[in-house]
Design a protein that fits this description.
The structure is a single chain. With 285 residues, this protein is an alpha+beta fold. The protein is built from nine helices and eleven strands. It has a five-stranded mixed β-sheet with strand order 7-8-9-5-10, with helices on both faces. A four-stranded antiparallel β-sheet has the order 3-2-11-6, covered by helices on one side. Helix 3 crosses helix 4 and helix 4 crosses helix 8. The longest helix is centred in the middle third of the chain and has 17 residues. The two termini are 37 Å apart.
């Protein structure tokens, strides 16, 4: 156990590298301290023991899961999109099925693995749930052995909440259904050609906006809601916009499905504002 890494990235370094400057650093805005500074990807979006599940024999199974199942495909997929985006004219088709399949898994996993969305799940967790779980006795034993805590302590309750959330969020059925919801929507790649308009990302980079309610609030935004606009930055010059396919207000975007378009100042500002609102603490500008 002593050899287990304790610093866990809620946004992987292989993603953050697409937002570094020439010195390999990222400019950070700290929402809590209201200050700016520069840092390298290895020191950003880090939480101690964030994916450590005390109630499984293999404590770091989810860290391994993300690395093997998602992060290994991210660089190749991003590079493919970025390389094509530099060659294509605006309104040309870029988002082929293979790319969307890989990107949907990257986006959904990133959404579920961050602090804000997991905290929301914890808050709706019922303390009665462990009493009907499988292997409850073993889980109680692991909790006591590894943390010295009991189920009724705050740490104990959170350990059970984390165990259940990670198990549910990373289940094959959960991921497949959520990915299919994304794939069935309208995808557009937005490119910034404005020198003074960089695209922001954050420690909670999958931005959801409920267009019907005009809301960024977490309780108003579930991936299953057909009113969600989804924004996901790929680099300082590119972001994905995934729109409901049945929204009549979006008819102007209909002809650009799966294409790349040059973003207006307004649409880039809207994406950047969403990153500011939904970030847990760090916005990468």
């Amino acid at each position: 156990v002593n050899n287990i890494p304790r610093r866990h990235h809620i946004v992987p370094q292989c993603y953050l590298k697409y937002f570094v400057n020439d010195s390999g650093k990222i400019k950070v805005f700290d929402k809590l301290k209201i200050c700016e500074y520069y840092a390298s990807p290895k020191d950003l979006a880090v939480r101690r023991d964030f994916y450590r599940d005390y109630l499984r024999r293999n404590e770091l199974i989810w860290e391994e899961f993300y690395s093997m199942n998602v992060e290994n495909s991210l660089p190749e997929t991003f590079e493919k999109i970025i390389n094509k985006s530099t060659k294509l004219k605006s309104t040309e088709k870029i988002l082929v099925e293979e790319v969307k399949n890989k990107m949907s898994k990257i986006i959904i996993t990133q959404l579920f693995r961050t602090e804000k969305w997991r905290r929301h799940s914890y808050n709706s967790f019922s303390p009665k749930i462990p009493l009907i779980l499988k292997d409850t006795k073993e889980k109680f034993g692991l909790l006591k052995e590894r943390t010295g805590e009991t189920y009724i302590s705050k740490t104990g309750l959170e350990a059970f909440a984390k165990n259940q959330y990670l198990k549910l969020a990373n289940h094959e059925i959960t991921l497949n259904i959520s990915c299919q919801i994304l794939i069935d929507r309208n995808w557009i790649l937005i490119r910034s050609k404005l020198n003074d308009k960089k695209i922001f990302t954050s420690d909670n980079p999958v931005v959801l906006y409920n267009e019907k309610l005009k809301s960024y609030k977490i309780e108003d935004n579930y991936i299953t809601d057909s009113n969600n606009f989804i924004f996901f930055p790929i680099s300082t010059q590119l972001f994905l916009m995934i729109l409901p396919s049945n929204n009549t207000k979006l008819v102007d975007f209909g002809e650009y499905v799966d294409c790349i378009i040059d973003g207006t100042k307004e649409i880039i500002d809207f994406q950047n504002f969403g990153q500011m609102i939904q970030a847990s603490r760090q916005v990468f500008i």
